[in-house]
Amino acid sequence: MLAVFLALTLVSLAIGSVHIGPGRVFQSLIEALAGGRSLSSQEDLIIFAVRLPRIIFAGIVGASLSLGGVVFQALLRNPLADPYILGISGGSALGAIIGILIGASSFYLGTPLLAFLGALATVFLVFIVSGGNRGALLDNSLLLSGVVVNAFFSAAILFFLSIADSMELHSITFWLMGDLSRASAREIGVAAACLLGGFILLYRQALKLNLIAQGEENALQLGVNVERTRQWILIVTSLITAVAVSLSGIIGFVGIMVPHMMRLVFGSDHRLLIPASVLFGASFLVAADTVARVVLAPAELPVGVITALCGAPYFIFLLKRKGN
């Protein structure tokens, strides 16, 4: 999975509205590590100031969304669960938009904090609506609750868009479909720190996730405090998802496709499934963002359009397979 990510990174650095040969890109990366430079100033700017930060940012966001999907599918014992389907991405987006409109972006981490609060509120709202507070975590009720919560947040987002200033309307609309073009060193650092910390915390719970995925009663008999474990894992996962969404916008279906693909290949042991999904999620979003950049070059599509075109048919496939 790491080799796949590095190969896709090299390809993504080479292609775009300005084509640079993969050999030249690889040579420039080696020389940059050694402190040298062989490319022209324009090519150097394109690779190291435009494409490389965006690729790193796309990898971090894809890994974060995939990690969230793995955790939600394990906790809810539902292969259709992910932050987008359950409305958590929508809650994060609503919090982020409110932050943008009230000027919270002028404060350091102001917008990600509001996005996190929106995601956390969504988690508890979905559980309450589905009857999760009584332990009745039924598949259909969870999915329907996510649809209802998503519909409510969509209406709220449309309301705020209708009262937004015309100067902000285009950027917010583009952001809602997934926008990785505004990657900066600060955003990359914040997202990477949250992903790394969340990955370490969640990976330490891989054995508990294995037991919970097999059934709450079995986990309780083997000494797992299911309620406490679920609560703090949901908080950590919501933080990772909220930060990714607040910085990149709504990018759907990554959290449902990637974990399911990795489960088919590597099995359901979360000690292997979590790192595999993180690495492949990074690779998948880098590939999707590369397609979004080049398919209409020099114009570009929001990356959320590409992931939706891939994810919607895959979601229908999973739904049909689960029904059978």
Task: Walk me through this protein's architecture.
- The protein has 324 residues and is mainly alpha-helical.
- It has a single domain, classed as ABC transporter involved in vitamin B12 uptake, BtuC (Orthogonal Bundle).
- The chain has 14 helices and no strands.
- It has helices at residues 2-14, 22-34, 41-76, 88-102, 110-130, 139-163, 166-176, 185-203, 206-214, 216-221, 226-248, 254-266, 270-294, 303-323.
- α1 packs across α2 (22-34) and α8 (185-203) runs antiparallel to α11.
- The longest helix has 36 residues, at 41-76.
- The two termini are 31 Å apart.
- 44% of the residues are buried.
Provide a compact summary of the structure.
This protein has 324 residues and is mainly alpha-helical.
- Helical run tally: 14
Q: In sequence order, what are the helices and strands, one letter per element?
A: HHHHHHHHHHHHHH
Would you identify the CATH H-level superfamily? ABC transporter involved in vitamin B12 uptake, BtuC
Helical content (DSSP H or I, runs of 4+) = over 70%
Spans of at least 5 consecutive residues whose pLDDT stays below 50 are none
- Largest beta-sheet characterization: none
